[in-house]
């Protein structure tokens, strides 16, 4: 959520602030905006029901936009939002891989040229042309967000390449297309610890989005446990609740190990990216 047209990155995928306000107008007119505490109390049986047509507002990844644009608008309307920052970018000023890719794409004027550069680097690092072609052909053109070319770049740099190669190629492309250091960029992009604490003090809810924003379903049990524990340490330090709390899965990804860890850590709601109606069945609230 930001003012995009006329900004330094006019091609970034985001929500114009004016459109955000229009969305809130619609949601407040058609739905009952609920607080995180309402959902938590329902999950632990302190509430028997939620209002008719409940709407729960969430904001992921901990962007500066949330303190500059979202918070003032929510306060003005006297409604609560729930914010889910990954803790590592805030603590270490590391740029998340997914954001590096977004800004590479937003800064690139010739997507075909970018893909050629990406493929050339992949071949240099030992990826065969057959593997590249198979991946290209495997991409579904019916993606609800991106065309085949954008999806290809994202999949290669997020998941398909080995992590070491992904990191090197992403670093090279970010330096070329965005032209600033990732650390400086992250400081401008993400909230500070003080700003996350401000969200809590202003009556907003802050929950877990893991530590490093990994695809949890691809991590080992121990790695997932560490990710969640580090996130909870961060939440405790900024004054957010760590008992009867809410987890928002990075990239919507989780598995049975994730659910097992969360139950042991007293998490009561887990937010997915699954498309469809949110069914408020208490035994399924870790997969909402």
TrEMBL record:
Q: Which GO terms describe its biological process?
A: carbohydrate metabolic process
Q: Which SUPFAM superfamilies match?
A: Glycoside hydrolase/deacetylase (SSF88713)
Q: Do you know which Pfam families this protein is assigned to?
A: Polysacc_deac_1 (PF01522)
Record-level GO cellular component terms: extracellular region
Q: What's the main place this protein lives?
A: secreted
From the Swiss-Prot or TrEMBL record, state where the protein is found: Secreted
- GO terms for MF: hydrolase activity, acting on carbon-nitrogen (but not peptide) bonds
Checking InterPro entries in the record gives: Glyco_hydro/deAcase_b/a-brl, NODB_dom, Polysacch_Deacetylase
**Ranges for the NodB homology domain?**
53-288
| Keywords for this protein | Signal
The molecule here is called NodB homology domain-containing protein
What organism does the record attribute this protein to?
marine metagenome
